[in-house]
User: Fold these one by one.
Assistant:
Number 1:
Amino acid sequence: MTSLNLLLWITSGIMFQLAVFLGIEYWRHWIRYRNFPSDKTEVGEILSSHKENISVAAWTGFRTFRVDRRIIEDAAQSTCSFYLVPVDEKVLPVFQPGQFLTFSLNLPASDDGSEQLMRCYSLSDAPCADYYRVTIKRVPAPLGSNYSPGRSSNYFHDHVSIGSLLQVRAPAGHFCIDNSDDPVILICGGIGITPMLSMLNVCLTQRPEHEVWLFYGVRNSSELIMGSHLNSLDSEHSNFHLWVCASRPHPEDVIGRDHKHRGRIDIQLLRALLPLKSYHYYICGPAPMLESIVPALEEWGVPDTQIHYEAFGPSSIKRTASAVKGKIQERETDKEIVVTFSQSEKQFKWKHSDLNLLEFAEANGIIVNSGCRAGGCGTCQTKLLSGELSYRHPPDYDPDVGTCLLCVSIPKTSVTLEL
Ligand SMILES: Cc1cc2nc3c(=O)[nH]c(=O)nc-3n(C[C@H](O)[C@H](O)[C@H](O)COP(=O)(O)OP(=O)(O)OC[C@H]3O[C@@H](n4cnc5c(N)ncnc54)[C@H](O)[C@@H]3O)c2cc1C
Ligand code: FES
């Protein structure tokens, strides 16, 4: 055997061993990603100590808060943070990153009276002893419409100033970061950044070694909220990966400085960038974003239990067959169910594709007041006159006896609602 042949044999042997090693590693990652539950370890004081208390309200009813500071957070000046301190000066309970506050507002009405409005705003910072922070975007009227602009958001921007008093319900909501060691992917669009800021600030301070990715969709640099804060986190933490994606950048926006990717956040981008790992995905943004990304993640093979999302308004996410399998089995045995709206004198057949009674009522032209649409604020509380309901998940708000929260209810039998 010549020395050239020997060299070839040795090189081939090394290449073969390397290929076997890489193949085994890939296989291990894939199996863990698809099938195995992730290791759970207790990490971080806030995340672990409040896991059990997620459904227990920190106070009942409304508590008065004073606005201590206001800070404009974007170049377009359409987003403002409000720092809130309790007037009673008592301890400020810790919350789960991702939870929201519910505000009861008394807005001046056009007839010189006042209009009561309930609105939810996510807590946008990590829990701290001194304040709660919410960050609110002005909602304009839809383009070309005669509707008036968003009532609550514009009221906050135009009338809520330092010293203003606000009636606030305790932190609530189930869209909270999991307290596992798993790496985390945060995906948000526009003002959907607010719960992510809370999650991000907690993750990076309490678990500095933890791998976190933030995919943040904006139209252009003017809409970027807390851009300098995000950029400093990006430069301070090697395990934090910030991807600002601009769908309609200004001509003067520069890739690499104002954003990292041109276009929307989509599954192709995630697949191209993310290593094969068992990530937990947290998604908050406009309904079209959720409706495209959530099913695409499921199709990609991300287990249902690792996809968590919240919409700030109505959204109907089409889950894949595996995600709804349990529910379909449950429904096949269902009898015909009729929902009666007594005050409206209307009756409709419940369709199993309907997500909850709030959406069902709205789809049938029944007007219902709603706030969080997640069982947290009590705005959709309605008297149940007959029949039986079940809750999709235990609500944070404790409804009065004989009433139900439509936004998290589905009928078990035919029901009559006082609506
Ligand atoms: C859990 C949760 C957390 C949230 N967190 C945040 C947050 O952190 N930051 C934030 O900014 N927002 C957040 N939101 C959204 C927030 O609660 C409000 O929905 C938002 O501020 C708009 O309320 P508004 O009263 O200003 O608008 P609304 O008065 O409710 O109006 C909304 C839109 O409808 C239009 N409109 C008015 N009348 C009609 C009509 N007849 N037909 C059709 N359209 C009409 C208005 O012009 C406006 O464009 C959150 C929502 C939820 C559920
Ligand atoms: S809308 Fe908030 S509890 Fe139903």
Note: Residues 177-325 form a domain with the Rossmann fold fold (CATH 3.40.50.80).
Number 2:
Amino acid sequence: MAKTSRKTFLTKSFYLVTSLSLIERGLGFSSEVMAENKPSGSIPEGLTPVSESDPTAKALGFHQDAKKTDFTLYPERKEPQAKNQFCKHCAQYTKLNEGWGKCNIVSAGVVSSQGWCSAWSQKT
Ligand code: SF4
């Protein structure tokens, strides 16, 4: 009887450790993906992010986080071919650090590398 209990205990322990390991790997992957889509640099000293209520920003549907784009106004941004449309890949963007840069059009501050507006055009 004691032998059966020990076997059951070891089997359950094996499954528990295996499950926890798989869950941990899954969570690690999720946080890596999330980290990839967040601006990683801090706002350059002395500069401020462009306000999304800035008239130019508003007129162009700009958001510091492209995921917040109004897709009813800009459905093309949701198309698969637009998935890499972020400020960091735009011809108007000049990188200041990993997370922030200057835009030639939306210029009342710095824009996030993960931002987007309807004036986006592919950097060559
Ligand atoms: S023009 Fe380009 S860099 Fe400027 S806000 Fe729009 S998408 Fe970003």
Note: The two ends are 73 Å apart (CA to CA).
